[in-house]
Amino acid sequence: MAKIEHQTLNDRAYAAIKKGLMSGQFKPGEVLTIRQLAHDYGISATPVREALQRLVAEHSLELLRNRSIAVPILTLDKFVELRRIRCLLEGLAAELATPHFRDSDLARLESTIVEIDRDIKDKNAAGYLKRNEKFHFVIYERAQSPHTLQIIQDLWTQVGPFLYCLFEDTGYLREANDGHRKIVTAIRSGKPEAVRDSVVWDISEAAESLMVRLREMEAEAALKNGPTLQTAPRRSRPAAARSPSGQGSTARR
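-> structure tokens emitted (253 positions)
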């Protein structure tokens, strides 16, 4: 029984940290310490250590040269690739979910929209990120496709930490909930393709805002690091110093 309990604790630590990544609780480049996480979750260090190692193996976290574990920093190219995959898979999940929505699901989605409006008004970034993740996964969990859901969760562990940048874009925030309202309207229509398209639209609108910020961050990093040093080309030896045979020995006078 003790072994089963130990395994359960490991799974709980893994799920908690993964949920934190998905909902933007951790930021890109942030170093995660075993001691602090164990304190925050009220558990011992061992299950936290094993959970972090598992997330490193899944590429949700990265192991630094000094053996610390940190949240990866997204490059623009990687973000564009993740956006493409998200649009395909999350659009598919939304389409599959359409026949399975219940009135209680719609009530949860609509109440979450109200909460997100309040978070934006109160400038509550943590609340906004948490409820944005909640809204989307109410939809994806209705797809009744566990493997698709697992892959989507893994994608969110990579993009979730970067979503905090949305809260820095006041222009985007003014319309951030419009995509969610479009999704609910599409669900009420009962048309799977409309639900898929509305989810893809919501992802794409957020991605446009995030890509602007990513370009700015990469430009700032380039200025900070300076131009890349290049090795000077090797100069040829003067012709007079070469031997007639081309062996490179100096001719005798």
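Residues 1-5, 228-253 have pLDDT under 50 and may be disordered.
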